[in-house]
Amino acid sequence: MDHSKFLVSVADSTHVDFADTICAEYESSAMARGTGIAKRSPEYVKQKMLEGKAVIAFEKSSGEWAGFCYIENWSHGEYVANSGLIVSPAFRKGGLAKAIKEKIFKLSREKYPASKIFGLTTGLAVMKINSDLGYEPVTYSELTQDEAFWAGCKSCVNFDILTTKERKNCICTAMLYDPKDHYKPEETAAAFKEKSKIYERWMQIKKKWAERIRFDKKKTAGGISSKIMRHFKSVL
User: Could you identify which of 24, 50, 122, 139 might form a hypothetical disulfide with 35, taking C-beta atoms 3.0 to 4.6 angstroms apart as the criterion?
Assistant: First the structure.
């Protein structure tokens, strides 16, 4: 799929009617993947559009909504997150996600030139896109410690894992771009290519254990057995 067939632009007040569609896709996508995702309300998505802190994509020929992403800032602007990247199922695997990420990254750099830009992802494809932009995989300790950010994870199906790990790790991989201290995009892209098989295997292991924990939680009526959690701690 040629991503030049799409119009990718900064969202504004003319796009607020698409908020319900976007939020519905967030929920269905999370269920289909079986991985965690923080819930967003249509009101929150609309707010990001009105603030000029979001990017939206449409197919040029039909005008159909195709994708979305938005900016959040934390720790008094020290950190910025490009959050909620979503592409409509009909337009996936064609380069549109990369085009949206490039646009939101550029918008973030314009609005917050001194801020560190970070993201959490469970997808290898997003890891590659981030690496192409200059992001590096980091530990959770290098992310914002703003409680408001971490509170957003409460609606994620893997929140129990995050809290048990004392916010030191979870199913998501953390990535960071530091404008004051970063490698060139070619270097981070090359590093990702070299280690992509390792990242892929690691993500598979983490997802497998997340499934085990969720299954165990159901069996124990909402709790996680100490045996399962001890083993999970040992592999993460």
Answer: 122
- Of 32 and 123, the structure prediction assigns the larger pLDDT to 123
State residue 10 phi and psi, 5-degree precision.
Answer: -70, 130
pLDDT band at 4 (very low <50, low <70, confident <90, very high): confident
232: three-class secondary structure by DSSP: helix
The per-residue pLDDT of the chain, averaged, comes to 87
Q: How far is it, in rounded angstroms, from Cα 90 to Cα 84?
A: 18
3-class state of residue 9 by DSSP: strand
Query: Alpha-carbon distance 164 to 158, whole Å?
Result: 10
Total Cβ atoms within 10 A of residue 76: 9
Q: Looking at the predicted structure, is the pLDDT value of residue 217 above 90?
A: no
CA-closest candidate to residue 207, choices 148, 158, 162, 135 = 158
Q: What is the pTM of this model?
A: 0.81
When computed from its CA atoms, the radius of gyration of the chain, rounded to whole angstroms, is 18
Beta bridge partners of 146: none
Residue 185 burial (CB count, 10 A): 14
CA distance 122 to 30: 11
Beta bridge pairs of residue 153: none
Side-chain-facing half-sphere of 207: CA atoms under 13 Å: 15
**Cα angle value 66/67/69 (rounded, 5°):** 165
